[in-house]
Design a protein that fits this description.
123 residues; mainly alpha; 2 strands; single chain
Length: 123
């Protein structure tokens, strides 16, 4: 039997490192625009606050997808860039985006049907 999809399979790593809703957006933004300062990332990503961005960057750095470059300047300057592993994720992430575009309506319709079936009936 092929254990490729069991709970301890290595493929789970790819999904786990991007499970947070903002992590994939940050990776895609850095992939599109290159190294950026946190303030510039907040502006490019849109809808994300500085604390949430900082948490996402720390997770991505912890997972080896983002590199933090500190410059010895006054005031201090920090840029974030994708690592080789982060850049390698761009292609499969873009493929997932294409899947979402193609099947968005089907997924939303299924969610709506499911919610409707589970709603309490009012007489």
């Amino acid at each position: 039997m092929d254990d490729e999809y069991t709970a301890d399979c290595q493929a789970r790593i790819a999904f786990e490192v991007l499970a947070n809703r903002w992590d994939s957006v940050v990776v895609l933004t850095l992939g599109a625009y290159g190294p950026m300062r946190p303030r510039a990332l907040v502006g490019r990503v849109g809808g994300i606050g500085p604390k949430v961005l900082n948490d996402a960057l720390r997770r991505l750095e912890h997972n080896g997808l983002v590199f933090r470059q500190v410059y010895g300047e006054a005031p201090p300057r920090v840029d974030y860039a994708l690592t080789v592993a982060g850049e390698a994720l761009l292609e499969p992430m873009r493929a997932m985006g294409q899947w979402a575009l193609r099947y968005r309506d089907d997924v939303l319709a299924a969610q709506e049907r499911w919610s409707g079936e589970r709603s309490p009936r009012v007489s």
